[in-house]
Amino acid sequence: MAVFEKITIAKAINESLRTSMEADPKVLVMGEDVGKLGGVFRITDGLQKDFGEDRVIDTPLAESGIIGTAIGLALRGYRPVAEIQFDGFVFPAYDQIVTQLAKMHARALGKVKVPVVIRIPYAGGIGAVEHHSESPEALFAHVAGLKIVSPSNSSDAYWMLQQAIAGDDPVIFFEPKRRYHDKSRLDTESIPDPLHKARVAQAGTDLTLAAYGPMVKVCTDVAKVAAEEGKSVEVLDLRSISPIDFDTIQSSVEKTGRLVVVHEAPVFFGAGAEIAARITERCFYHLEAPVLRVGGFHAPYPPSRLEDEYLPGLDRVLDAVDRALAY
């Protein structure tokens, strides 16, 4: 019998790590303060007590060293799950990720696998200080050899992390930190969707909203408001940023004729640009309006008192919906 319960995304990730560690003794958790403290967001709470310091490792404050060590462990047969404490702290490790982790499989002509998962709490909305609210997913999606995913609910957080850990490819697992305490239903015995498959979060006929991570909730809220105005909006949760499930987006756009892509990251050179270009190529004769994008501004993330103006919210997404439907 399936187990249904409403739990937070934070708890779902903790349970996912626990399940993976119980299933495979080669799974290790490592990062700054992940052990005794249980992580700054308490995502790894209790794991070191239950699995020991050899499997839940408090590292020095050195992101390049964390990822470099994780790569070495993977080459020795382990499955390390490395936590970067905040999104903006990943950049000291960018060289290790891009130059080593992403390239190792190809460099070894397929003979070497590096099953490293890098967990990164990302995006804004929590009133944090500088370098704690970045959305750098497009920087990594541009690099061949990396898989990039981001869950928006507890069920996906639970299943997608286990799928990432069990796979043989390096995965960057972006966790929407402002959604950590959102609760949703989790079935721990269901058959999960494929890791890189988009899902229809809400069906509609007039326009498609495509989003991932923290923006999925905003888009479902937009769809509810639009419905009150007599507009039927379909919401797609992309779930994966590299690869992107263009087939599901195409199928939706062929039905609705309109697409708005929403993400927290700046619109300029963001994931929405790639989606807009691909869907324009694939769906040119189905589109009733140009593909529109809503996202952050091309500016450094502002102080917390201004972040509500920076982040895409209900009104900005609704404005894009209205503009698309006006064509």
UniProtKB/TrEMBL annotation:
Report the top EC class in one word: oxidoreductase
Q: What EC number is given for this enzyme?
A: 1.2.4.4
**Sequence ranges assigned to domain Transketolase-like pyrimidine-binding in this UniProt record:** 7-182
- GO-annotated biological processes: branched-chain amino acid catabolic process; response to nutrient
Keywords of the record: Oxidoreductase
Cite the Pfam families for this sequence.
Answer: Transket_pyr (PF02779), Transketolase_C (PF02780)
Supply the InterPro entries for this chain: THDP-binding, Transketo_C/PFOR_II, Transketolase-like_Pyr-bd, Transketolase_C
**Superkingdom of origin:** Bacteria
The keyword Oxidoreductase is assigned to this record? yes
Q: What would be an example GO MF term here? A: magnesium ion binding
- What is the required cofactor set for this protein? thiamine diphosphate
Which PANTHER family has this protein been placed in? Answer: 2-OXOISOVALERATE DEHYDROGENASE SUBUNIT BETA, MITOCHONDRIAL (PTHR42980:SF1), 2-OXOISOVALERATE DEHYDROGENASE SUBUNIT BETA-RELATED (PTHR42980)
- Under which name does UniProt file this protein? 3-methyl-2-oxobutanoate dehydrogenase (2-methylpropanoyl-transferring)
Q: Which organism is it from?
A: Streptomyces piniterrae
